[in-house]
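SUBJECT: protein chain
CONTENTS: sequence, structure tokens:
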Amino acid sequence: MTRRMLKISLLTLSMALPVNLAFAGVTASFRYPLSNFSGPVLSQWAQLAVDPERNEVYALHQRKNDIRIFDEHGMEIFVFAEGFGSAADIAIGNDGDIFVLSTGYQTSTLHLLDYRGERVAEIPLQNLPAAFAAFAADRLVYRNRSLYLVDSESMKVIVVDEAGRFEKAYDLDRVLKPFVPRDDVQRELSINDWRKRQLQDIGLNGFTVDAQGNLFFTVPVLFSAFKLSASGELTSFGRSGGSKGKFGVVAGIATDEMGYVYVADRLRSVVLVFDRNLEFQLEFGYRGNQPSNLIVPDDLAVDRSGNVYVGQAANRGVSVFKIVHQDVNPLQADEAISIEPEKSGRSTEEVEVDRLEFVVDQGSAAAPTDAGDSGWDSEAVESHNHEEKNHE
């Protein structure tokens, strides 16, 4: 068993990173930002994908025009220029193949790269239905040797095999009709909730597929996340609001091997965790300047070790959190979180951390209270608008 002696400033720890060592239920602990030997790798809303076979994570940096690969410890091991200039998303195949989706004006192209990032081929989409002739994907997910291409604006999904041959299609706009407010209700919303609605994008935002073939996606204008089962049953979960467990502006969505669902909220700057029954469990992040905080989180990815990768705004890069489930013994972990003392001149103590990770306290001062669902944080709204403008 590996043991580490860690120097921890107790005063700094109590003020900046509250500790909760109670492992009842599901818990989330901040681990580290994705980094290289120069320090944290800065990025703005990186698109993320996990290679489950090698437990590596890929980050597509659209502004920097590159793709970076990180090992299971969050260290960069390889980087290459994506070479397309308009790459929108990335997915990793079972054999380590890299799929890159690039976009143009009302068009999209699927590319296959080898493990060195060198282009192997362009994958043409074959035998598409006539209704999808104008399809232009901007999201990409790989699952069970199939590629899911998503047109977030039209809310259509095409599923093809690794060679681009058509398998099936979904029209989520049609599926969602029962959940869309009537015209008179929408007019009322536009008057009373204008601050929320001005942040919304029409169509889908987050999208993922679990191992059973269930589709999960978020629709900001409906303040909801959805599960479309493999049998065609649609379930909505989450409620609009500004308090704990509620949705502000929903964004990225991901699932883990235990069936838990993770939803990023741009406005509240948190990631919400739901169990396999789609019941809210906890949230983590919150707006702030501490390493465990988040600023306008967006894309999410989860690996087999329970690490949740969160892309965010403000050039904050990708933060990594560890999830521990109640039916998993947390004492099985061999690695302890490393916390460096601040250079404040205060005294420090030697603390031995034996296979335990410090858990971000959900009751910290950064967390919102349940003082009502209408108390939207004006600073968060302004920051969200600012980041949106910079991203355009």
Observations:
- Residues 1-24, 194-201, 329-379 have pLDDT under 50 and may be disordered.
- DSSP finds five helices and 28 strands in the chain.
